[in-house]
Amino acid sequence: MDWFSSILSGFQIAFQPANFLYCFLGVFLGTLIGVLPGIGPGGTIAILLPITFGISPVSAIILLAGVYYGAMYGGSTTSILVNIPGEASSVVTCLDGYQMARNGRAGPALGISAFGSFIGGTFSVVVLMFLVQPLANAALKFGPPEYFSLTCLGLTLITYLARRSMVKAIAMALFGLILSTVGIDLISGEARFAFGSPTLLDGVGIVPLAMGFFGISEVLTNLESPIERIIFKTRIGNLLPDKEDWKRSTGPVIRGSLIGFPLGVLPGGGGVIASFVSYAVEKRISKRPEEFGKGAIEGVAGPETANNAGAGGAFIPLFALGIPPNVVLAILAGGLIIHGVAPGPTMLRDHPQIFWGTVASMYLGNIMLLVLNLPLISLWIKILKVPYRILMPLIIIFCLIGAYSINNNIWDIVIMGIFGIIGYILRKFDYEEAPLMLGFILGPIFETAFRQSLIISNGQLSIFIIRPISLLCIAVAAFLFISTGFSYYRKSKIRMTQ
Amino acid sequence: MKKKYELAPAVFWGLLSIFVVLNAYKLGLGNFKNAGPGLMPFLLGICLFLVSMLLIGKFFFGVKEENGTPKGISPMKMDLKKISLVSLSLFAYALLLKTIGFLSLTSLLLLFLFRIAGSRKWRVVVFASVITMVITYFVFTSLGLRFPKGIFGY
After folding, report:
1. Domain boundaries along the sequence of chain B
2. Is A394 in the B-facing interface, judged by CB distances under 8 Å?
């Protein structure tokens, strides 16, 4: 099937009434949870996973993907109107978006954010469509050593790009990798760390783990320090940016798309880093840098475009290599696996309808989001006013039902509770959950590829450095470790001499 | 100033790594030609042990990382009562679900959660619990999920 027929069949799938509805539901829910601080796309996708069991895999992925990129749109609303980012990727939008609202320009801020998101999101889908197939074809030639080295590099990048301490991120990634070894060893058939529990023989489930870390621990944290939401009282007039706004935003939107997409492809990247880099670039090249932080429209247009372009870019490593670059797509990858679809290069060969259907739905989803966001802005503001004392019990009940309904097993609720408490305590000590979840998801690929490589090479570890792609990945990972260690050593030395 | 409780996670990682290494060793390591089921957890356990030592070393001798400062929430300042009550309610829910049944137990849990979350008026709490219960039950059962009925039959 050629490229044109593929995309045409993708649109046929996306336009089927059920899939169209799931796409709408996904982007609506995504915007909703993007607006609501206290629950993110990761937790929502984990909650929705059991619900998708009764529907076809393509509908399920259309729904879950819609939640992911829809959340990127919704996150900006709270940043602009409340000065609280609904999502981490909208943190930087607070700086100028909220100031614009204070200056009586909430309308154009919300408008340019929606248009920028639409352009960035659509741009990323177009590039995604062109890049995935050749990358997947190349990846089909990869052997276990390449996969092992790629997962090594992915995990290194995740820890290297951690927002806080790299050592803490490494500890979390290792914890995730260790958790992934629980259950029956697929090669020898022996039970590992199951301690006689039939539930643990199947391993730790991704849904209870994700719900524990992203649902329950979030609730426990917010229970202690409730989120205060004071909506800035302003009249939201015309949402359409004027000619001057467009003139100032065109460059940031183009640059945001170009910066966001490649940063989304990087493991650990996604929308967060893309939005920060875009903001820094816009401030650096602006003729009016002094306006940044005081309501510059470029500070909203660039980052909001970049985070949506990054969200689309993040699908490339998942679809082409089977390696999720961030935690939300890690949970989505878990969803694909539950539906019997292995993400990666074989997915395009064995399940092309899922890939092309999802890509086509992303076009539709971006249009729906643009249509949804602007006219429904008053609805989102009303939702923002829902107090946390109402939301908290709902989140817990959804988590409980979600965890139980995976296998109709009460022990999954217990596992979710245990990881919720562990996640809450680790948050207190400033540990990030993302490296753990990625370690957990990549763990099986990491171990299987390592052991298969050793079988191929008759026990020679040199197999990882004699194959060029593998060597490149290992060398980059080693460089990142060494450079971080060296930088830390230099800092320590300076501190000691002072 | 460094606070002693900041050492707790490093010690936790250290103890966890020892536990993993010992259990992985029992599983059988094999060798690189014929890796046993314990080899990967063993190697990961060793790495985690080294990381825990690094964290302990950093605590005593290292410089404080600029990007590693906590978000202003002291680990020692926690609302232990609320956190314990909510956590215990989750475990109690799991253990009693099959006996008491989904509808009865979830209604009780919702009443408890709405109260602990800060809703003061009982009328509001009961109304919110009933509405939530009815909507979630019908939404999830219509999606094909089945819940335990318990001794009361619902």
Report:
1. 4-68, 80-142
2. yes
- The first and second tokens of residue A388, run together, are 């946390």
Residue A237 confidence (pLDDT): 62
Helix runs in chain B, H state only: 8-27, 39-61, 80-100, 102-116, 122-142
Contact A170 B51 (CB under 8 A): yes
Torsion angle in degrees (nearest 10) through CA of A64, A65, A66, A67: 60
Note the pTM of the prediction, 2 decimals: 0.80
Residue A184 parent element (H or E): strand A183-184
- The minimal CB distance from B97 to the residues A51, A392, A410 is found for A410
A490 in contact with chain B, both atoms CB, cutoff 8 A: no
Contact A193 B23 (CB under 8 A): yes
User: With an 8 Å Cβ cutoff, are A390 and B145 in contact?
Assistant: no
Model pLDDT for residues A428-437, shown as the tens digit of each residue: 888 888 888 8
Please tell me the distance from the alpha carbon of residue A431 to that of residue A427, in angstroms, as a whole number: 5
If you search the block for the tokens 């706004």, which residue do you land on? Answer: A245
CA-CA distance, A273 to A307, in Å (whole number)?
8
Report the residue of chain A nearest B23, measured CA to CA: A193
User: Which positions in chain A touch B90 (Cβ < 8 Å)?
Assistant: 216, 396, 400, 413, 416-417, 420
Structure tokens at B38: 């314990």
| CB B65 within 8 Å of CB A206 | no
For the stretch A332-383, pLDDT in tens is 888 888 888 888 888 888 888 888 899 899 889 988 988 877 777 777 777 7
The pLDDT of A37-43, averaged and rounded, is 71
Higher per-residue confidence, A487 vs B143: A487
Strand partners, B30: B35
Q: Residue for token digits 């978006």?
A: A97
- Cα A345 to Cα A316: distance, rounded to the nearest angstrom: 10
List residues bridging with B112 in a β-sheet: none
- Measured CA to CA, the distance from residue B17 to residue B46 in angstroms comes to 7
Cβ <8 Å between A224 and B35: no
Question: pLDDT band at residue A157, thresholds of 50, 70 and 90?
Answer: confident
